[in-house]
Amino acid sequence: xxxxxxxxxxxxxxxxxxxxxxxxxxxxxxxxxxxxxxxxxxxxxxxxxxxxxxxxxxxxxxxxxxxxxxxxxxxxxxxxxxxxxxxxxxxxxxxxxxxxxxxxxxxxxxxxxxxxxxxxxxxxxxxxxxxxxxxxxxxxxxxxxxxxxxxxxxxxxxxxxxxxxxxxxxxxxxxxxxxxxxxxxxxxxxxxxxxxxxxxxxxxxxxxxxxxxxxxxxxxxxxxxxxxxxxxxxxxxxxxxxxxxxxxxxxxxxxxxxxxxxxxxxxxxxxxxxxxxxxxxxxxxxxxxxxxxxxxxxxxxxxxxxxxxxxxxxxxxxxxxxxxxxxxxxxxxxxxxxxxxxxxxxxxxxxxxxxxxxxxxxxxxxxxxxxxxxxxxxxxxxxxxxxxxxxxxxxxxxxxxxxxxxxxxxxxxxxxxxxxxxxxxxxxxxxxxxxxxxxxxxxxxxxxxxxxxxxxxxxxxxxxxxxxxxxxxxxxxxxxxxxxxxxxxxxxxxxxxxxxxxxxxxxxxxxxxxxxxxxxxxxxxxxxxxxxxxxxxxxxxxxxxxxxxxxxxxxxxxxxxxxxxxxxxxxxxxxxxxxxxxxxxxxxxxxxxxxxxxxxxxxxxxxxxxxxxxxxxxxxxxxxxxxxxxxxxxxxxxxxxxxxxx
Length: 646
Description:
Layout: H1 19-22, H2 35-44, E1 55-60, H3 63-83, E2 90-95, E3 107-110, E4 114-116, H4 124-133, E5 143-144, E6 151-152, H5 159-162, H6 180-185, H7 190-198, H8 201-211, H9 223-232, E7 239-244, H10 253-260, H11 262-276, E8 280-286, H12 290-305, E9 310-313, E10 318-327, H13 336-343, E11 367-371, H14 372-384, H15 386-390, E12 400-407, E13 413-418, H16 423-430, E14 440-445, E15 451-454, H17 464-469, E16 478-483, H18 488-502, H19 508-525, H20 533-547, H21 551-555, H22 558-566, H23 568-576, E17 591-593, H24 603-607, E18 613-614, E19 622-623, H25 633-637, E20 643-645
Parallel strand pairs: 1-2, 7-8, 7-11, 8-10, 12-16
Antiparallel strand pairs: 1-3, 3-4, 5-6, 9-10, 12-13, 14-15, 14-16, 17-20, 18-19
């Protein structure tokens, strides 16, 4: 009987746990091959051990860092190493997104894990000369904690990373997303090997159910139950779809996973295919994500070459192929039935969900649809066990969740935290608090369909039930932080404007209701509102939520209803006093100069496009409110805080 490799007695039908490594050099290892040595060879490409003379520069090549100059740093480092004669002892590599987008482009030096932030082309020669040749840290490029003032040398010391718990993002930022060997080196495809050689499809399904994993795309439906429902339906054909149509403003969680570790998503889809009995899958990804699409294509081609996609995968009898379908940018195609209509070549509009997609989905066949983050969790569950996964999070919300933390926060970027962490911990411990020492006002959780939560809810735990009870939602994970300079009426208008524009127009409540609500908000921000508008907004919001056809319409009023609930006084000030407390609504704001603070420098006078400011040099200036066009340039250019915005 042939052996899996020369170092074990397993047959090809029941290979050892490292069988996938054997596949890297053909169906079986060479006579002198060793699975463990092959894994160590792969691992040595990405892990540089302390005490060795060898060093490694890992440049973040996610889209955020890359577009900020990170892509160019890769070649610059290689040329500079050659120029300074250390190219034989230092390797240059690139990775996907590390999450700390606020500090990009960033670079890690291994093995000491030194983290350099906001690296520019002109910094490369200094890093090579001082650090890579002379073992001296370039201190000016280290991260400085704004709270303590302490310089953080390593990745692990930075509070933004220290308070996170990474499961899905564990290897993003460290492995090369375009090299399958690096994914294999850190344990990639071992979950698939375990499932195909040691578990039945029913056992894989049971493990996912037991883990308590819920869909990370927004609704939070139990993943195992969805898979079980599709498997139960008698059919010779089933489909697996990955929803990567991430359309929320400010959201880039799925994009980062696809750009940084695409194989984790492919492995999750393969495990789902094995569990439900599917031989064909689709990844529906935004065409606006060209780097993610490119890396997905590379990953699929590599997986096919290694025998991990295609026919008779790992001699198990499993056949599975994955197609990429690029979306055309319609937000509504994030809804499952609209997405499937788009794949079928039809207009992307929702249909009634009876029967369910698990019974009659893509091309009329049973279909499992989960998002990127959901699938990326599955290999970890199968490899580490459902009990391990279920030990993270809360009683009903298991595991971790990735959030895109944006807005008026010190440390913006991607964060992965255990379910149950509070908003305060996420925003202030990881996010570093509010920029410029401003006062926290609200956080919009769940994207444009979520809700704005006020300061007295900062200790609310982040889980599905708590957020829904507060009027928000988990959504895909977008989180926008607002400070005292944000007008909540204007923010509600901003988010509603997005969902109103993205409505497919199929159902009247969503098409007409969101338009009427937006018109009322526009009136209020122009100072033309009246008190009857508030109960009308609440009534319309309730009708749209209760009667809309799909999730876009049923959640579109959330930003309006939560701001009415938690920030009602701001609406009253706009309507009764014709005043915007934050000074953000242009039609309602005023600018005056504080005489005691103005030193007559003339900066505001020169910046004013309407010539509404007058005054002698070195004497307090005055704004003519009849001429003022309320553009705010005077407020922006004054260095002495002498211009007051009302």
